[in-house]
Amino acid sequence: METDGPVTDDVAPEIRQRKIIHIDMDAFYASVEQRDNPELRGKPVAVGGSRERGVVAAASYEARKFGVRSAMPSVTAKRQCPDLIFVKPRFEVYKTISQQIREIFAEHTPIVEPLSLDEAYLDVTENLQGIRLARDIALTIRAKIKDETGLNASAGISYNKFLAKLASDHRKPNGQYVISPEMGPAFVETLPVAKFHGIGPATAAKFNGLGIQTGLDIRNQSLTFLEAHFGKAGTYYYWISRGIDERPVRANRIRKSVGAENTFFDDLTEFNAMVAALQPLVDKVWQHCANTGNRGRTVTLKVKFADFEIMSRSQSMPTAVSNRGELERVAISLLERSMPLPKAVRLLGVSLSTLRTKVDDAQSQFQLPI
Question: Residue 156's beta-bridge partner residues?
Answer without folding.
Answer: 22, 177
